[in-house]
């Protein structure tokens, strides 16, 4: 069973998670090769975010096993998984609300080490601030560096959310509904940005917007009621009777 | 995402830095002149001056934790008390020299804070508050009973103000300036730490620990680091306490003393590192003068506390901003008729203003 494996960014084996009596996730398997682009779709409460949280280590799996980059991380802390090269965004933005946009990215670039050097005044790390500026430019927040996060629009907060994850220079990037609340033009920008993500970065995307989900992914996973019910190419998913059944009458769009 | 009593408005203090600096310097000049301004130095210097300073220093450690880490600790006076006991034990029982005793006290307080942090850093919000309160009570009852170490309720004495070579603390004025220097040093230290990368990370933890973990930060270690640092600051306050009283006994760390620190922090403004000294002055004035017109000191303190919470939720340090807020509002009302409102109001602003006007109208 425990084969050292370097070709896979992520392997999820028979993972389940219960919340009290609720089976939020049931026996899910998932394999993602390095550099793959995967979208996860599914109705509200299907367990998509729960899957993310398990992969990121926010809470432990009730059962099952999770491997990141060929290493068993099932019992590993969130911080350690992040250091292995995993970055994620949150469905509802988790930002440093009282700080400025630039400070948010500065912290995100923090390298995560508890070193004596971190007692240096923050302004004495000009290269880190510059890297932050470049990141903000990439997500379209160049003008907003000095703004306090609490004053940002919802869309801008989502953009910052993305910048924070990119700051880690991850090997595996997990985005939880990055387009939620975006305007059409912001959506276009997002798709462009996602397509520009370097090939070697593996992407796992939860997205309610079918256009984005199918446009970006090479493979799509459909979840329903805590289970993975389908997996296939975007074309297969588009043609699938089952998917249409679940999303009958465009309820998917309502869910956004 | 639970947090207690932290100011939720976005920190735009950056723009306020300059007026803040000027006010700070004026206050400092007043503090330096203080011993020469008062009519009865023998009363004013220890009872108001020095007392305000150590109250402020200990409260500053509480405010630091609350403002930059989002933790409300009720153990700060206990930590200061441990440091005071450390100095007294080294002086009285071990017969060590003043400098060594001071270092010993600082080490005891800081180490104790570190141990508290190891236990408490995992808990949050109300649990952290309860735990720190409980630890304080445990130490109090131990101090009141451990005859061998603390000499129980009689305490450790005498701890005379020493001649430190550079400064003879036996002289009241010198001791006052010693305390003032310590207060300034503590403030600068807190500011320095807050603006370091470490301090920014602490503020990140305050706003979203989940995010910090996801970024690879070991949240607990940062919390432990911050609590230990705050304990060091409180310990400095403890050194002044023991020399101020020439002794240490359990009343230094009883529940009243613990609550005094909270009151000082709230009166000064729970988010302001300098406001604590205003809070310290108010409380020491209350302590010394309330018996002139009432024998219910606690009632009066309680009333002041409530008044501050009602009318100036950001404390004395926030009053300037409150007045500014009202002024802005009045000015905008005057102008708003012909001018188009071009900027979108940030969602947090109106509620804050409501609070402000509510406070001043009453
Ligand atoms: N921390 C938690 N505690 C208790 N129940 C939870 C928790 N997280 C998720 N759940 C429950 O687990 C189920 C799956 O939730 P999850 O957030 O994974 O769904 P989702 O697919 O991300 O849905 P959405 O599209 O609405 O984001 C839901 O019924 C939810 O209420
Ligand atoms: Mg979700």
In short:
With 256 residues, chain A is an alpha/beta fold. Chain A is 35% helix and 25% strand. In chain A, a hairpin with a 2-residue loop joins strand 9 (219-224) and strand 10.
Q: Number of folding domains of chain A? A: 2
Q: Return Rg of chain B in Å.
A: 21 Å
- Distance, first to last CA of chain A: 40 Å
Main sheet characteristics of chain A: 6 strands, mixed
What structural class results from the helix and strand content of chain A?
alpha/beta
Principal-axis shape of chain B: globular
Shape of chain A: globular
Based on DSSP secondary structure assignment, what is the total number of beta strands of chain B?
0
Describe this structure as you would to a colleague.
The complex is a heterodimer of chains A (about 260) and B (about 350). With about 260 residues, chain A is of the alpha/beta class. Chain A folds into two domains: about 170 residues, P-loop containing nucleotide triphosphate hydrolases (Rossmann fold, 3-Layer(aba) Sandwich); about 80 residues, no CATH class. Helix content of chain A is about 35%, strand content about 25%. Chain A contains ten helices and ten strands. In chain A, the strands form two sheets. In chain A, strands 6-7-8-3-9-10 form a six-stranded mixed sheet, with helices on both faces. A four-stranded antiparallel sheet of chain A has the order 2-1-4-5, with helices on one face. The longest helix of chain A has 14 residues. The N and C termini of chain A lie far apart (about 40 Å). By secondary structure, chain B is mainly alpha-helical. Chain B has a domain of about 230 residues. In chain B, about 75% of the residues lie in helices and about 0% in strands. Chain B contains 15 helices and no strands. The longest helix of chain B is centred in the first third of the chain and has 29 residues. Chain B is globular, with a radius of gyration of 21 Å. Classes of the chains: A alpha/beta (about 260), B mainly alpha (about 350). At the A-B interface, helix 2 and helix 3 of A face helix 7, helix 8, helix 9 and helix 10 of B. The structure holds adenosine-5'-triphosphate and magnesium ion (MG). Adenosine-5'-triphosphate (ATP) binds next to strand 2 and helix 1 of chain A.
